[in-house]
Amino acid sequence: MDTPEIIYQMPGQDHRLFINVVHACPNACLFCVDFKGDAFYGFDLKQTAIINSDQIVSAIEHYPCRDNIAEVYFCGIGEPLLRYETVVDAAKRIRSLFSPKTLIAVNTSGTFYKRHPRVDFVQHFDLIQVSLNAESEEKYNAICRPKVKWAYQALMSFLSDLKTHLMRNDMTCRVELSVVDTTEVNNLPIGERGSTPPKPDIEQCKIIADNFGWPLKVKKLIKDCEDDSWHKFADEVRNYRAPIN
Ligand code: SF4
Q1: CB atoms < 10 A from the CB of 111, how many?
Q2: Pocket of ligand 1 (CB under 6 A)
Q3: What tens digit of pLDDT does each residue of 208-241 get?
Q4: Distance separating alpha carbons of residues 4 and 65, to the nearest angstrom
Q5: C-alpha to C-alpha distances, 175 to 8, 159, 164, nearest whole angstrom
Q6: pTM of the model
Q7: In this structure, which topology does domain 7-239 adopt according to CATH?
Q8: Which of 88, 114, 178, 204 could bond to 135 as cystine, CB 3.0-4.6 Å?
Q9: Ligand 1 centre distance from Cα of residue 204 (Å)
């Protein structure tokens, strides 16, 4: 296996490539796959190595048939924008490695904004996916269990600043908000299945998204991603890549 494991794929999504930037997050969401075993579909996304943009670019360069990739996501187990400059630099540099139609996206909790109150990264992306996950601070604290104070306010400030920035600069970058439906308790990490988990009010989340003028995606809990059976799948993806010297 290449160390650190930077790019990965998910079963049934051959057209998507994911970039794992950092295993650190200001949140500890009760549904996070971080609490679901050591591997995610057979990939080790929990490395502690500090990854730089050269390594990301190199990992992409060694992935063959990039023309088959329609979507690239900066999205792993952690908040990618904690490594703000790394993500910006890598996003800038990898665009020319894919066909011009390839969508470059980042998935964020928005909580990075507390440490890096900036939104200028958007100019390098076609899609910004933001995890809203709750209609109120109280619910957010129950579901996303932030390790920092005022995380929900940071998320809301980020969304407002993002909206203003896009409008002021007449940018066409798409934004999607999401909420995780926590109803299917058996798909939560084992440690969270004993009690009734807090549930987001999806209608209220939709109102928040509507007020910003962005769509809201309702996500289901990811299941079985920790099963040992996925190691074969991950090996196939890894073997598909050219060796990194
Ligand atoms: S924001 Fe994402 S990476 Fe962070 S704890 Fe929540 S689900 Fe996990």
Answers
A1: 26
A2: 25, 27-29, 32, 34, 77-79, 109, 131, 144
A3: 999 999 999 999 999 999 999 999 999 988 887 6
A4: 22
A5: 23, 10, 13
A6: 0.95
A7: TIM Barrel (3.20.20)
A8: 204
A9: 21
